[in-house]
Each structure stands twice: as C-alpha cells, then as structure tokens.
Amino acid sequence: MPRPPLTALLGLSLALAHAGAMQAAAAATHASGAGASIASQDGGQVAKVCTRHVRRGKLLGRVVSDSELRTSPLPRPSGDIRVYSINYKEELKTNIYNPDGSYNVEAAKEIAHVFRCRRTGEEHEIDPRLLTILSHVNDRFGGRPIELLSGYRFQRKMTSNHFHGTAADIRIAGVRVRDLRTFVHSLDSGGMGVGFYPRVRFIHVDVRPAPSFRWIDNSRSNPDSSDKQPPRGWKRKKLES
Predict the structure, then answer these.
(1) What does DSSP assign to residue 237?
(2) Secondary structure class of 42 (helix, strand, coil)
(3) Closest residue by Cα to residue 143 from 84, 207, 202
(4) How far is CA 5 from CA 13, 17, 90, 147, in A?
(5) Residue 234 and residue 232: Cα distance in Å, rounded?
(6) CB 125 within 8 A of CB 108
(7) Cα distance between residue 138 and residue 232, in whole Å
C-alpha cells in the first residue's frame, strides 16, 4: 500500500494531540470539583474555561470573567449567623464578632460543631471568609435560618472544598434558590465558587484561590458516593463510658 503523505500524517498527529489535551483539561477541571482553572504550558492561566461533563445528568461550569466580579469593597456584615443543620436537626444562632470587633473564637467553635461531618462526626475549623459570606446572607434574608445540607466532610476526595472547611451547601426556606444564588453572586469580588443544583434545590458556596467559578449541576445528588465516604482506614472513635 502507498504511504500517506507527510502532511496528512502531521495533520492527524496534531488533531490527536489537541483532542488529548482537551480531554485532560476537562478531566482536571472535573476532578477538582469543577472549580479549578487550567494552567497553560507556559505556567499562565487560561482566561476562560467552559466544560461539559455528563454523569447522571449534565454539569456546566465556567470561570468568572473580571467584568462580572464585584468592584466595590463589601461592607462589614452584622456578624450574625443563624444556621440549621439538616443532618443533625440542630440550630445555632451566634455572632462571629466580639463586641470590640475582633473575631469570636468561641462562636467559631460552635459553628464548627454544627458544620461537623454527618458521616463521622469529625469537626474542622470553618474558614472565616465563608462565615462572612453566610453572615451577609443572614442579613439579606432577615435572619431566616440558613439550612445547611453539607458543611465539613471528612471524605476520601481530599481536593473537595468541603474537606478543607471552605464550603457549604445551603438553602433558605421560603427563598427561591435562584434568588439566593443571585445574591451570593453579588458578594463575589474574586476567589469564590458558586454551584447551582436545581433538581435538589440548593446552592454550593465556597472560598478558594482566584479565579472564581460558577457551575450548574442538573444531576441527581448522590450524598453516598464513594468519594464522599470517610478515608480508608478510618474507624469511629469508641465512646468513653
């Protein structure tokens, strides 16, 4: 058989390389919780990334452009947080600030307890930047309890923001999830992730290194997926008698 022309071989090689790079980029973005930007070969960051991933539904994600971010500084919130844990049926009302304006360490401990992992009971400090966002949400919606579906997760997927105490899945009774999402978007001056889950009716909000990221996940939630299970080898602590 005659050998294909050299130009055809080069074209095929370039096409395969491009396809492989696109697949790797999409996989890297999904593996990081649909919130990572993708580094270019020269060490820079791609300005915008749009990914589609089909897995029990459709996930659409994108990096937020600078023009969409808040440009004016956020005012200081009241510090009030009223949160209700769906998993533990516990409600906490506290203030993350002391009267002198300093950070309230005891309140942070109380919040960490309410945010504890629903599978293991493990606790982790919750990032103060996330608590500031939740206080703004509290102020905007009249102090209605923020329903916490998932806070800290002691899980196998350690790249998840939930594992690092920097994420919360939330909703508010009587408030449309789209309205809650719109308000949280307005708080973003860079370094936030906001996910919208219309089928389960909640939003995910996290703090992260810039750039900010947005996504919509139309899949059915699977709170018991393997990556959300406790790390292998973990054993529940025995209660002391």
Answers:
(1) P
(2) coil
(3) 84
(4) 13, 19, 71, 64
(5) 6
(6) yes
(7) 37
Identify whether the C-beta of residue 129 lies closer than 8 Å to the C-beta of residue 207.
Answer: yes
35 closest CA partner among 207, 180, 188: 207
Give φ, ψ of 115 to 5 degrees: -85, 5
pTM of the full predicted structure?
A: 0.74
Of 182, 183, 175, 172, which Cα lies nearest the Cα of 81?
172
Could you read off the pLDDT of 32-64 as tens digits, one per residue?
Answer: 344 333 332 233 333 334 443 334 457 899 999
* Segment 95-122, tens digit of pLDDT: 999 999 999 999 999 999 999 999 999 9
Tell me how far apart the alpha carbons of residues 142 and 183 are, in angstroms, rounded to a whole number. Answer: 13
Note the pLDDT tens digit of each residue in 127-175.
999 999 999 999 999 999 999 999 999 998 889 999 999 999 999 999 9
Q: How far is CA 14 from CA 19, 28, 43, in A?
A: 9, 21, 21
Q: Give the containing element (helix H, strand E) for 138.
A: helix 128-140
Residue with tokens 């915008």: 48
Domain 77-228: give its CATH code: 3.30.1380
> Domain locations in the chain?
77-228
Is residue 219 packed enough to be buried (19+ CB in 10 Å), middle (13-18) or exposed (0-12)? middle
